[in-house]
Amino acid sequence: QEGDLPMSARNGSASDEECRITEVCRAPEDVELTELGPLLEESGGPGKAQGATAGGPAGAAACPEEEEEEEEEEGVRVITLPLQAHHAMEKMEEFVYKMWEGRWRVIPYHVLPEWLKDNDYLLHGHRPPMPSFRACFGSIFRIHTETGNIWTHLLGLILFLCLGILTMLRPNVYFMAPLQEKVVFGMFFLGAVLCLCFSWLFHTVYCHSEKVSRTFSKLDYSGIALLIMGSFVPWLYYSFYCSPQPRLIYLSIVCVLGIAAIIVSQWDRFSTPRHRPTRAGVFMGLGLSGIVPTMHFTIAEGFVKATTVGQMGWFFLMGAMYITGAGLYAARIPERYFPGKCDIWFQSHQIFHVLVVAAAFIHFYGVSNLQEFRYGLEGGCTDDSLL
Ligand SMILES: [Zn+2]
């Protein structure tokens, strides 16, 4: 028993294959889960988890106070019940201690509780429900289905924190309107940092409990809307530098659409597997609303100017990366074609995460070029230019 507790990803896949062939290991996995559930729930706070019965330890723990009143009549039970309660408490503490030590093991998809069942192409390597934040954060350093999702956005967060701090500390002599331009860049970095932060937190505490996972999934989706809204701000600011009216209109529209996306994200069913295409559609639509100002700019300034000073090549690449990411996410490629082979690495969600970070970085590069162009001009605006 002790020896097979820390289970590696490869062990995990192997045992799952055994499962599919023999179904022998199904029973022990189920037992494992029902044992873990209520015991952790007792001390781990108000976690509503696992659908397992809490009757055993909870019932025993509640009895001693009642029994004390019947002391004279039922002397024997007075001794045994507190002992049972004590034993149950000890067993519980032992389990909680094991959790703190990180002594849990990954489990296959088919034993997950309903609220943790998200992607049935990931057959093994899932974390069990763990209603302890300490255990969840400890799992960052373990190998399971969420490890890649957590780290892609945790490292992305560090990257954008550094970029943001560098931009904010940049000497004001490089800006035409230092305060205004730093606020504009600040909106982009705020959106990116919040998105990446909510995302890695969501993937970390996803297995905590149904309530926590639902709350953080709403934050996660709201973060995507914030990233897209924040990305529009510097792009519109510099692309329509000399025509404040369309700039204000486009900015207002993207704010309204972004807030609408955040409101839709608060809908409880939005996070269910059934609405995966809905989610991809909402955020793709929000991003694709950028087509209107792009058309405006290209028609007014011409294709050549749009692709050179307008940086459209970079923004097109950025858009293509977001759309590819959303498409892979919605269709669950590649795990759809290789069920069980992408449990740990190269699942669609990880590719989507990497594409989001890369797209945001390319967007930052394009916007920085726009800023440089604006600074290089030094003078004001000519009558016939948006930029
Ligand atoms: Zn994610």
UniProtKB/TrEMBL annotation:
Sequence ranges of Low complexity compositional bias: 34-43
Gene Ontology cellular component list: plasma membrane
Keyword Transmembrane helix: yes
One annotated GO biological process: adiponectin-activated signaling pathway
Keyword Lipoprotein attributed: no
Keyword annotations of the record: Membrane, Metal-binding, Transmembrane, Transmembrane helix, Zinc
Region Disordered, annotated ranges: 1-20, 32-75
Tree of life domain: Eukaryota
Protein's recorded name: Adiponectin receptor 1a
Source species of the chain: Lepisosteus oculatus (Spotted gar)
